[in-house]
């Protein structure tokens, strides 16, 4: 896919996930989550080619501008969207699938100083509510929803709903809408 094709895909994903989005121009100019992911793609490319200092310096500059820190070593899928964005942190060995959505204040972080895989993997279509912390080398299955302020430290299968501190997992019920799950008071801490 071309760079412009990817940009158009990102703009469509933002319009789909944000009911407040009015136009592609507004999204392209005013959405820090998109600015952060667009910059991440450049810095990830540099990181993979051994320009690690330049990639880290660039990612820190973008963090200063947007309030979103994505390590250039993190692997991010297509149509990734960060709503509002401030305070989002994504660690070096994190892996994020396609069609994933994060709200503000989310951390995809580590729990140890060990080398190797130390950050989470999110499957395709995962949604993570505001303030949630997903910690360690765990895997969250596709189409799962993590409630606001949950602290997740254990693997979860596909189609899970995770809430609480520490987060407990349950299967999604038929017809449960992700946006409704993330907004429901019973899924917030």
Offer a few descriptive terms:
189 residues; alpha/beta; 6-stranded mixed sheet; 5-stranded parallel sheet
Any overview of this molecule?
The protein contains five helices and 15 strands. It has 189 residues and is α/β, with parallel strands linked by helices. The strands form three sheets. The chain has a six-stranded mixed beta sheet with strand order 3-6-9-12-14-15. It has a five-stranded parallel beta sheet with strand order 1-4-7-10-13. It has a four-stranded parallel beta sheet with strand order 2-5-8-11. A hairpin with a 4-residue loop joins strand 14 and strand 15. Helix 3 packs antiparallel against helix 4. The longest helix is centred in the first third of the chain and has 17 residues. It starts with a helix and ends in a 6-residue tail after the last helix. The model has no long low-confidence stretch (mean pLDDT 91).
């Amino acid at each position: 896919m071309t760079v412009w094709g990817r940009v158009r895909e990102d703009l469509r994903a933002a319009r789909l996930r944000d009911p407040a989005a009015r136009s592609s121009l507004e999204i392209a100019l005013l959405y820090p989550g998109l600015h952060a992911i667009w910059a991440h793609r450049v810095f990830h490319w540099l990181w993979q080619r051994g320009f690690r200092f330049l990639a880290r310096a660039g990612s820190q500059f973008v963090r200063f501008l947007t309030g979103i820190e994505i390590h250039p070593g993190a692997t991010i899928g297509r149509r990734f969207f960060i709503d509002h964005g401030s305070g989002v942190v994504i660690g070096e060995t994190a892996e994020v699938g396609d069609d994933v959505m994060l709200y503000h204040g989310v951390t995809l972080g580590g729990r140890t100083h060990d080398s190797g895989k130390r950050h989470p993997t999110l499957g395709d279509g995962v949604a993570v509510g505001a303030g949630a912390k997903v910690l360690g080398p765990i895997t969250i299955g596709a189409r799962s929803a993590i409630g606001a302020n949950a602290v997740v430290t254990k693997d979860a299968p596909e189609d899970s709903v995770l809430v609480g501190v520490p987060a407990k997992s349950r299967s999604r019920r038929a017809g449960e809408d992700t946006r409704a799950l993330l907004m429901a008071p019973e899924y917030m801490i």
